[in-house]
Write a structure and sequence with these properties.
This is diguanylate cyclase. It catalyses: 2 GTP = 3',3'-c-di-GMP + 2 diphosphate. With 351 residues, the protein is an alpha+beta fold. It folds into three domains: 75 residues, no CATH class; 101 residues; 159 residues, Alpha-Beta Plaits. It contains 13 helices and seven strands. The strands form two sheets. A five-stranded mixed β-sheet has the order 2-3-1-6-7, with helices on both faces. The chain has a two-stranded antiparallel ribbon with strand order 4-5. Helix 12 links the parallel strand 6 and strand 7. Helix 2 packs across helix 3, helix 3 crosses helix 4 and helix 10 runs antiparallel to helix 11. The longest helix is centred in the first third of the chain and has 50 residues.
Length: 351
């Protein structure tokens, strides 16, 4: 939660903000679930923040505010607090392990120092030892001290081994937390945040290696009408189906993401425009070839189609400009009748 919202909720304006949240949710037809309430607290408490802007976009586009939409927004904009808590928990465990290892190492150092003192004392005693009994006493003392050091070294090794395994487990856990925070909950594709990071990294790599980079934007045709006709749960089923087809085509180094609502994006590093066009056409044809059925009633939903547009990165072009050109190509596909793929290069030639 942002500092401004956190401050508001602990001041005299908290109750008025909460009442306004309920009123605004009711006016927009949004159910007051705990997750929706948290999202709208952010929206109204910080309307110019990233989440506030995204909710305004959804409302302006008259997109349905479904549970899937709430999950997507929460996964993208609200995981930071939960992620921070996960990191804090991992930090506490790591601190405990490091403290334990430090204690074991300190104990081993003291043992080694004592053992060194025992050796020095034995060496001095050997110079003055006269009979066998004295020598036997010295040897027995050295043997006992050596066994003690060996035991403590074994204990230290076991502790280091256990701590190494625990740190590896923590690393794996935090990596899973990171992946969850970057994954769209409904489709299991990368979410908007992950897409933005991938695009920035791919743009930089393409410029460094002088390799082509292509960005595609994909949109489900007439999705709002489909949702209004069959309901949001069936709409979510369609989103998952389209995402599964896109995901199968997104083998590394390609990246596929749910960009927002019924819109998806794909990044194609190092591929030619012809290869990208072929891949997008294959996705379009596979999606359109299947007649879908409603799971709950087995009603025939008919075929779903997509429109797509793609653009190749130009020299010194940033990610946002590349996205604008891909968006323009997508809208050209929409204007031309939908269920088609358009290249931004074709629009440039036509212009």
């Amino acid at each position: 939660m942002t500092a401004s919202v956190e401050t508001t909720l602990r001041g005299p304006e908290a109750y008025s903000l909460s009442r306004r949240v309920i009123d605004e949710m009711e006016a927009s037809g949004v159910w007051p679930t705990p997750l929706n309430f948290e999202l709208w607290l952010h929206y109204l408490g910080d309307p110019e923040g990233p989440l506030g802007r995204e909710i305004r976009r959804i409302l302006a586009a008259d997109e349905p505010f479904t549970e899937a939409t709430a999950d997507m927004l929460a996964a993208e904009y609200l995981p930071r607090g939960r992620l921070t808590e996960e990191i804090r928990d991992a930090g506490r465990v790591l601190d405990r392990e490091l403290s334990s290892v430090a204690d074991a190492i300190s104990k081993a150092h003291r043992s080694q120092a004592a053992y060194g003192h025992t050796l020095d004392k034995a060496a001095s005693s050997l110079d003055t030892a006269g009979d066998g009994e004295a020598l036997q006493t010295i040897v027995t003392g050295l043997s006992s001290a050596t066994r003690k050091v060996q035991r403590e070294n074994e204990t230290l090794e076991k502790k280091l081994d256990a701590s190494t395994r625990e740190v590896a487990r923590l690393r794996e856990h935090l990596e899973q937390v990171r992946r969850d925070a970057m994954t769209d909950a409904l489709t299991n594709l990368a979410n908007r945040k992950a897409f933005d990071e991938h695009l920035a990294a791919c743009c930089e790599a393409a410029e460094t290696k002088s390799e082509p980079l292509t960005l595609a934007v994909i949109d489900i045709d007439h999705f709002k009408r489909f949702n209004d006709t069959w309901g949001h749960q069936t709409g979510d089923q369609v989103l998952r189906y389209v995402a599964s087809v896109i995901g199968r085509s997104a083998r590394a180094p390609r990246v596929a993401a749910r960009y927002g609502g019924e819109e998806f994006a794909m990044i194609f590093p190092g591929e030619t425009p012809a290869q990208v066009a072929t891949a997008l056409e294959a996705i379009r044809k596979e999606i359109a070839s299947r007649s879908l059925r409603r799971r709950s009633t087995n009603d025939d939903l008919g075929a779903v189609t997509i429109s797509a547009g793609f653009a190749v990165q130009k020299p010194d072009e940033c990610g946002s400009t590349l996205l604008e050109r891909a968006d323009a190509a997508l809208y050209a596909s929409k204007r031309a009748g939908r269920n088609r793929v358009t290249s931004a290069a074709d629009l440039d030639q036509a212009a």
